[in-house]
Design goal:
- 2 copies of one chain form a homodimer.
- By secondary structure, chain A is mostly helical.
- The first copy, chain A, has 2 domains: 89 residues, Tetracycline Repressor, domain 2 (Orthogonal Bundle); 63 residues, no CATH class.
- Chain A is 76% helix and 0% strand.
- Chain A is globular and about 65 Å long.
- At the A-B interface, helix 5, helix 6, helix 7, helix 8 and helix 9 of A face helix 5, helix 6, helix 7, helix 8 and helix 9 of B.
C-alpha cells in the first residue's frame, strides 16, 4: 500500500519544483505551462496537477521558504525594544535573504526575454556601461559599482511600485534625485540663487 | 496602388505596438505569442510578421524610443567638462527617463504572474508592509517610503545583476548594508570592540 501511494504521488515534489524553477528561469513564469513542466519531467500533466493544482501553486511553493524566512526576520526585528535595533535586525536580515535567494530573485524579478535584450544587445550594454561610469566615476571600485546598480534598481522599483503610484510626480522626482545622490555618496548640489 | 500597398502593410505599426504593450503587461513578454497579438488585432500572424519579424523585434521597437533618450542623455552628460556636471546631468536625466517610462518599466521589469503574487497575496503584503515600517519608521512620510522601496529594488538588482556576479559574497554583503543605511539616512552602527 505504501508503494501504491508513492506511485500515485508521481514525481517527487522536490523534483517538480526544481524543474519548474529551471523552466521559469528560461521562459519566465508567464511563459511556462504545466504541460512544459510535465514534458520536462517525462510525466503526464495530471501527475503534476496531483501535487500542484495550478502554476500559481507551484510559484507559491517555490517562494514559500523565502516568505517564511521573511516572516521570521520581520518578527525578530519587531521584537527588538529600540528603533535602532529594529532597523539593524531588519536590514541585516533582508540583505542576507536577498543574497541567499539570488537565483530565485532573478527568476521572479525579470522576464527572461527582457533580460536577454538588456544584457545581450550591444547598443544597450554600451549605454548602460557609460551610464554606470557617469554615476560611479570613470574607474569605479566594487562599492561604487554596487551603488550604481542599486541606483538603477531603486529607480525602477520606485517608478513601478503600486505603493508609490499616488505620489505627485514632482515630489517623486525630488526624492529620487536626493536619494540617488545619497546612495552615490554625493553632496546635494548648490542651489541657484 | 497606394491602397494595395496600405492593405499589404496590414494594421498600422503603432496599433501593433500598442496591442503588444498591452498583452506584454498582462501576460509578460515570454507569455505573449505573435498569434495572441494577431488575434487581439483581428489579423493573421503573417500580417504581424510583415512588420516585425519576431517577438524580439516588437520588444525592441517598444523600447527603442527609451534607448534613444538614454543615448541622448549619456552623450549630454559625457559632454560636461566637470565630473560634478556629468553626475548631475546623468542623474537628472535618468530620473526623468524612468518617471516618463514607468508603464514600460513595469512591463519590462516584472513577470505579471509574479507581480500578482507579490501584490495580491495577503501574507506577503502584510510582511512587506511590516518590513517597510521597520526600515522607514512606524509612520513614514513619502520620502521615507520612497527610500524603503528603493532599498528593496536596489537589493534585488544588486543580487541579480550580472555585472556583480563575480563579487565576493562577504564584500557584497558589507556594501549592501552600508549603502542601504545610507539610503535610509542612518548612521553607521557602532562597531563592537
Amino acid at each position: 500500500m505504501t508503494v501504491q501511494r508513492a506511485q500515485r504521488v508521481g514525481p517527487a515534489r522536490d523534483r517538480v519544483l526544481a524543474v519548474a524553477l529551471e523552466l521559469f528561469a528560461r521562459h519566465g513564469v508567464s511563459g511556462t505551462s504545466i504541460q512544459m513542466i510535465a514534458d520536462e519531467l517525462g510525466v503526464t500533466k495530471a501527475a503534476v496537477y496531483f501535487q500542484f493544482n495550478a502554476k500559481e501553486g507551484l510559484l507559491r511553493a517555490l517562494v514559500a521558504p523565502a516568505i517564511e524566512e521573511l516572516r521570521l526576520l520581520v518578527e525578530a526585528a519587531e521584537a527588538q525594544p529600540r528603533r535602532s535595533g529594529q532597523v539593524a535586525t531588519a536590514l541585516s536580515g533582508i540583505v542576507e535573504l536577498v543574497i541567499k535567494n539570488s537565483r530565485l530573485n532573478a527568476v521572479v524579478l525579470a522576464d527572461p526575454a527582457v533580460s536577454r535584450l538588456a544584457h545581450e544587445d550591444p547598443i544597450l550594454r554600451d549605454l548602460t556601461g557609460r551610464l554606470d561610469r557617469l554615476l560611479a566615476g570613470p574607474d569605479p571600485d566594487a562599492r561604487a559599482t554596487v551603488a550604481a546598480v542599486m541606483v538603477g534598481g531603486g529607480l525602477m522599483a520606485a517608478t513601478t511600485d503600486p505603493r508609490l503610484a499616488e505620489l505627485d510626480k514632482d515630489e517623486l522626482r525630488e526624492y529620487l534625485l536626493e536619494l540617488a545622490r545619497r546612495l552615490l555618496g554625493l553632496r546635494a548640489p548648490r542651489t541657484r540663487a
